[in-house]
Structure formats: C-alpha cells, structure tokens
Amino acid sequence: MAEHLSFSVRGFTVEFHIYVTVSGSDQKVRQLEPFFRRLPDAHLAVMYPIFVMDKKPGGRAGGGTWPPGLVRSQVMGAGHARNTGIPDADVDSMVVARGRGMIGLSKDRWERPIARLPFTVFHEVGHCVDIALGLVPSGANDADFAGMETNRCGAGNMVTRRAVEAYARLMCSPNAIYHTLPARETAASANQRLSNVLRRSPAFRTVPATWQPR
C-alpha cells in the first residue's frame, strides 16, 4: 500500500509518494521538511513530486529526475512498473495528467540515515530546478565550479553535474559547499565563489538578493 505524505512550505506543497516498506518513512519526511524551507519560492514553485520506488525504471538503484515530456516513455510501461513497483495508473494520474515531471529515489537511497539522506534528495531537487529554470550561468565553465566532484551523477555535461551537486550542498550544508578545497583558496572564499556562481544562474534570477539558505 502506497504511503502519500506531504507538507506545505509558504503555500507550496511538497509531495512524497512512497511505494516501498521502510520503517520510519513519515519521520524521514518530517526531518527533510526544514531543508525544503530553505528553498526560494521560485524553486518550490517548480518542484516535482517525489516517488520512492523499489528500483529505477531500468532496474538499477539510485535517484532519477524525469521532465514532463519523458515520464510516459521512461517511467511508465510494464517493464518499468515491475522495477519501480509504481502502477502506471498512479504515475498517469499524479504526474502525466498534471503536466508534471517526477523525482524518483530507489529504496536503498531512502534507507540512508538522515545524516546522508538530504544530500541524496537535494541532488535530485537540483536536477528538477535545473530542468525547469537552469542552474548554469551563461559562460560558466569547470573552473567556476572548482572543488565540486563530477562522479556523483551520470546525467548531463560536467558543468551541469557540478552545478547540481553545488546546489544540493548549498541547501544542505551552506558552510561547506565544496567537496575538495582548491589550492590557494580558503573555505570561506570557496563557499562564496560557489554560492555566487549559482546566484548568477537563471534559476536565481527572480530570487531576492537577501535570500540565504537558512
């Protein structure tokens, strides 16, 4: 039996649809809520519903984010439904019929302790924001995202991978955004640089200058 949980953040609803049996799922959702409260309204407005599934549609573990135009072909269908454990009718009514994309997390990711889970969730949230609004500033390159690892996501080009991971860490650990500290750079300057480059992206164009991920 699927578990449908949600909460409201400044009038925006964040949805979790859980199709696996994991003890304490309701507690995990409550523990994630404060992180979503850090998001700017512009990002909450484009948030896809989050589905916790057995495995990704292709049968692998991990997370995935599918834009509206790809949900029907990449998530629905008998073979995909067997892997995810989500009936096509549910995806159709809660995602496709509403013209939305979706975020998916496999059971093994959802079972992670709360110390690690926010980074997992917000990596996919970063993909969602990037798809809808764009997280890479015009002309940005690898040097702008120095200090970010690139092996944490298999989708998109290197700069986009770094931007998505930087976004996740900005929301989850704003005082330690980088993975590795570049030579001749302090922790404070690296964090400020990464935050600044994200703030130049289209996704932050309408975000007030006073916004901080508190």
Q: Average pLDDT, to the nearest integer?
A: 95
How many extended strands?
A: 5
Secondary-structure-based class equals: alpha/beta
Q: What fraction strand?
A: 5-15%
Question: What order do the helices and strands follow?
Answer: EEHHEEHHHEHHHH
* End-to-end C-alpha gap: 35 Å
User: If you compute it from the alpha carbons, what radius of gyration comes out, rounded to the nearest whole angstrom?
Assistant: 17 Å
* Largest sheet: spatial strand order: 1-2-3-5-4
Largest sheet: 5 strands, mixed
The dominant shape is: globular
Helix content: 25-40%
Number of continuous helical runs: 9
The overall number of domains is: 2
What is the gist of this entry?
With 214 residues, this protein is α/β, with parallel strands linked by helices.
Write the layout of secondary structure elements.
Blueprint: E1 3-9, E2 12-18, H1 25-36, H2 41-44, E3 50-53, E4 63-66, H3 68-74, H4 78-84, H5 88-94, E5 102-106, H6 107-110, H7 117-132, H8 158-172, H9 187-199
Parallel strand pairs: 2-3, 3-5
Antiparallel strand pairs: 1-2, 4-5
Helix pairs in contact: 7-8
Give an overview of the whole structure:
- This protein has 214 residues and is of the alpha/beta class.
- It folds into two domains: 104 residues, no CATH class; 71 residues, no CATH class.
- It is 40% helix and 13% strand.
- The chain has a five-stranded mixed sheet.
- β1 and β2 form a beta hairpin.
Main traits of this protein?
214 residues; alpha/beta; 2 domains; five-stranded mixed β-sheet; 5 strands; globular
